[in-house]
Amino acid sequence: MTQTHLQERTGVATVGGNPITLLGPEIKVGDQAPDFKVNKDLMTEVSLADYAGKVKLISVVPSVDTGTCDAQTRRFNVEADKLGDDVVILTISVDLPFAQSRFCGAAGIDKVITLSDYKNRSFGQAYGVLIKEIQLDQRAIFIVDANDTVRYVEYLTEMKDHPDYDAALSALRELV
Q: What is its EC number (predicted)?
C-alpha cells in the first residue's frame, strides 16, 4: 500500500491547533482489526497474528519522548499489572526501536510492549493514524478482542491531548 493511494482524512485532527491530514481508513467498533507489520527491534517484525488469542490494547503515540506520550505509556504500564495474562498492551510509535528501548529502561516501563512503525508506517496506514505532513502516528487507542474484532476506538482530535484512560480501561475490562 503506497501513501499516494491511501484515503486522506482532513478536518479530523490537529497538531498544536494546526490542521493535519490523516492517511488511511477510519477504524470503527465492530470492524475486523487490520493486520500490520511493525518492528520489535531493528530486525524483528511482528504483526497482529503474533498476539492471536489475546485481548489487545493498542496505545498509539507520536513519540515516547514527549510529555503526553510519556504519561500515556506510563499509565498503561501501571494498569498492565492489573489485567492478567490474557491481555497485552502494545504501544506503537514511529520512534526507532533503540529509542523506545532507551525510554523504557529510563522510565521503568516493563509491562507494555513497545513497537516501532518506523520502517514502512504499516500500522499508521492500516489504522488511519499516519499524519501525512510529518510522518508520525496520531495519538489513538484501539482495543481489539481475542478474535481480532475492534471493540473500542478513540482517535484524539488534538495530538497533545490525553486519551480517556478511564473509558479505555473500562472497555478493556469488559473483555477480560
A: 1.11.1.24
Domain count, the chain: 1
Tell me whether residue 104 is one of the annotated catalytic residues.
Answer: no
Q: Which residue among the candidates 22, 38, 64, 69 is catalytic per the annotation?
A: 69
Q: What would the pLDDT profile of 70-85 be if each residue is shown by its tens digit?
A: 899 989 999 998 898 9
Which residues touch 169 (CB under 8 Å, ≥6 apart)?
Answer: 79
CA dist., res. 141 & res. 153, Å (int): 6
Query: Domain for residue 69, yes or no?
Result: yes
- Grid coordinates representing 93? 510509535
pTM exceeds 0.85 for this model: yes
Instruction: Provide the residue range defining the domain that includes 96.
Output: 19-174
| Beta carbons within 10 angstroms of residue 155's beta carbon | 20
**Distant-in-sequence, close-in-space partners of 112: CB < 8 Å, separation ≥ 6:** 59, 73, 76, 77, 80, 89, 90, 91, 104
Three-state DSSP state, 172: helix
Say how many Å lie between the first and final Cα of the chain, rounded.
34
